[in-house]
Each structure stands twice: as C-alpha cells, then as structure tokens.
Design goal:
With about 240 residues, this protein is of the alpha/beta class. The protein has a single domain, classed as Rossmann fold. About 45% of the residues lie in helices and about 15% in strands. It is built from 7 helices and 7 strands. A 7-stranded parallel β-sheet has the order 3-2-1-4-5-6-7, sandwiched between helices. The chain is globular and about 50 Å long. Keywords: NAD, Oxidoreductase. This is NAD(P)-dependent dehydrogenase (Short-subunit alcohol dehydrogenase family). Belongs to the short-chain dehydrogenases/reductases (SDR) family.
Length: about 240
C-alpha cells in the first residue's frame, strides 16, 4: 500500500476524528486541520470559511508534509435551527460560510495544488441526506449540503482530466458531540429512528468506511457520486 498524505478538515472531533484515526491506522500520513488548534488531535489551525486561513494552512501543510493526496472536506455545522421564516440570519450566514463557502475554498485551493503537483488525488466531501430529504427546522443546513452535492459534481467534471476524483458521503443523523443534545432526548431520538428502516441512528464507525473507500484506488472509476449512509432513510 502506498502511504498517502491525507488532510481532514474538522478532524479534531466527531466524524472527522474517526476518519483521521482510520486513515492513520491504515498507515497514511494524516493532517488534522481544525479551527480549534487547542484540540488534542489538531495539527494545523484552519478556518475553512476564510480564504487567507485556507492559503496559510495549505502552505504549512505542503511545506511540512509534502503534496496532498487526499482531502476530506469534513468540517461543517448546523449552527442552530428553526423555521425559515424566523431563522436568525447569523445562523444562516455562518452555516453557508462554513459548509458551502468553506468546502468551495478548500476544493479550489487543494484542487489547484493537486493539478500543479501532478497528483492524481481524491477529494471526499461530507454531505448529508438532508440535501435530498427535508426536515423542518433544518432548511438552512440542508440547502448548504445540496450545494455541496452540486459542487461535488462540478468539481468531479472539471478535475477528471487531471486524474483527480471528487465524491461525497451523505450520512443521515450520526451520533457525535454535535448531535449529543438531540440524541439525549429520548422522544426526539425515537421519533427520528422511526424514520430509519434499519432502526438506529448511525455511529461514526458506520460512516468512516465509505470515506476510506471513496478515497481509495479501489474506487478509481467513481467520481461525482454522493453516497448515502443512512440506514435506508432515503427510501421512506
């Protein structure tokens, strides 16, 4: 197996941390880029919504670790919730800035880096089944994930001639620190699990293998895909 350099944004906790640990266990060089540089797992400070921060982090990563082979655009947030007609604009703007703008900035910067380095790399975006199945109160978040899916397809088309693949993994709800409040509400959790044919909310371990697969040579003929990991929820 060739050792690759893998960058995971938002990799200090939740899904990102699980992804980073799995790549590291497989013997790859893993760079955890996170806005919380004080987090135990963080290697590089990065605010994906800020172009200057993206450029600075990319310069540091390539200087310390060499060319990037895999980018996992994992960093994201909901920032709150509520009906669209009364949603706080700061919640909306922050969600768009991180989930959509941030994914775009990272894809733009790392895609250009891969082209310049001649790297036949892989980019995996973390989307959501919310891009295709709406839930009241999460319209702002789901719109950004629909944008991520569209960006995944466009980037896949544009980067394919350079040997760079771009795909996405679209989980349903996942048990992470971000969903801890919701998951601890027995009634809310039961109501959501009733929507899932397999009957349970995903763990981080349920999501990670799909990311590793899409980044691997075994997925070499896959690009522009958004793979649901949802226990069948999109079927309902």
């Amino acid at each position: 197996m060739n050792k690759r350099t893998v960058v995971v944004t938002g990799g200090a906790s939740g899904i990102g941390r699980g992804i980073a640990e799995a790549f590291r266990s497989d013997g790859h060089r893993v760079v955890v880029a996170d806005i919380d540089i004080n987090a135990a797992a963080a290697d590089v400070h990065l605010d994906i919504s800020d172009a200057a921060s993206v450029d600075a982090a990319l310069a540091l990563i390539t200087r310390e670790y060499g060319p990037i082979d895999v980018l996992v655009n994992n960093a994201g947030l909901a920032g709150g919730g509520g009906p669209l007609v009364s949603l706080d604009l700061e919640v909306f703007d922050r969600c768009v800035a991180v989930n959509f703008r941030g994914t775009f900035l990272m894809t733009r910067a790392v895609g250009a880096h891969m082209i310049a380095a001649g790297t036949r790399g892989a980019i995996v975006n973390i989307s959501s089944i919310g891009a295709r199945q709406p839930t009241p109160g999460l319209g702002h978040y789901e719109a950004t994930k629909a944008a991520v899916d569209a960006l995944t397809r466009s980037a896949a088309l544009e980067l394919a001639p350079h040997g760079i693949r771009v795909n996405a993994v679209a989980p349903g709800p996942v048990l992470t620190p971000m969903t801890a409040g919701f998951a601890s509400d027995t009634a809310a959790r039961s109501a959501w699990e009733a929507r899932i044919p397999k009957g349970s909310i995903a763990s981080v371990a349920d999501v990670v293998p799909s990311v590793l697969f899409l980044a691997s040579p075994e997925a070499g003929h896959l690009t522009g895909v958004s793979l649901p990991v949802d226990g069948g929820q999109l079927l309902t």
